[in-house]
Amino acid sequence: MTPVAADPLEGWVVSVDLWGTLITYGDREAEAAWRIREFETVLTEFGHDLPDGKVREAILAVRADTQRRQRTTGEQPPVRGQVEQMLTVMGLPLDTRLIDTLLVPHTHAVLRACPDIIPGAHSALWALRQAGARLVLTSNTLATPASVSRLILDDHDLTTVFDETVFSSDVGLAKPRWEMFAAVATAAGTDLSRVVHVGNSVTTDIHGALNAGCRAVLFNPGGKPCPAGVRAITSLDQMPIAVLATCS
Predict the structure, then answer these.
(1) Which of 11, 24, 31, 67 is most buried as measured by Cβ atoms within 10 A of its Cβ?
(2) Can you say whether the dihedral through the CA atoms of 65, 71, 74, 77 is positive or negative?
(3) Please, are residues 208 and 195 in contact by the beta-carbon 8 Å criterion?
(4) What is the mean pLDDT of residues 168-186?
(5) Mean pLDDT of 205-220
(6) What local confidence, expressed as pLDDT, does residue 96 receive?
(7) Long-range contacts of range 57-63, CB-CB < 8 Å, 24 or more positions apart?
(8) pLDDT tens-place string over residues 41-82
(9) What's the average model confidence in pLDDT over 134-152?
(10) For the structural domain made of 13-25+116-247, what CATH number should be given?
């Protein structure tokens, strides 16, 4: 990694996305299979014997719908509301005890995916800190609330490197909404114009940050089209230099 001069990022805040930028999504098929299996077990225990495939169909349909709504409008569907919608699609009553029980596998299924750290994450983040930047983790959540996301951060020794964390489940809105980036600036005690956001989604991370008045760097290992004027990196060890150039 190319060395960075002492404190060139003093007064800047670097906001970094989590999923797909610092950690992998893991085995999503394993995650989905475990959630479906646990839902079927719980529903059976509560006396609901549904036709084969009905639980899977409802879970996947609601997951796809909530993800689409979040990415396009910045809506933050509450996890309880997601489970309620799944039960509605299954044609089942919204029993409070049942919902409470299903919330556990719904919010913890991501752990079965075994998300892993993306190479270069630690060294890049510490290089940014050494360059004087204040670091904020800025993450959308869907089925995985902030409490479970923090477990994943702890597992990968990412918690201590960040000065602040901003999760959409806490804000009540999600990227690409400008309010998510305003929450970053507020948490860091700075202006939006002094925030550089790094993420892997052109829609939620790059356009969201730019529309909010921030600067942006695209983590782009797949070589997707990059908006004009935005620096793109293909590996995380390029992040410190790209951020420095973006702030210059």
Answers:
(1) 31
(2) positive
(3) no
(4) 97
(5) 98
(6) 98
(7) 57/89, 58/86, 58/87, 58/89, 58/90, 59/32, 59/35, 59/86, 60/32, 61/89, 62/86, 62/89, 63/32, 63/142, 63/143
(8) 999 999 999 998 999 999 999 999 999 999 999 999 999 999
(9) 96
(10) 3.40.50.1000
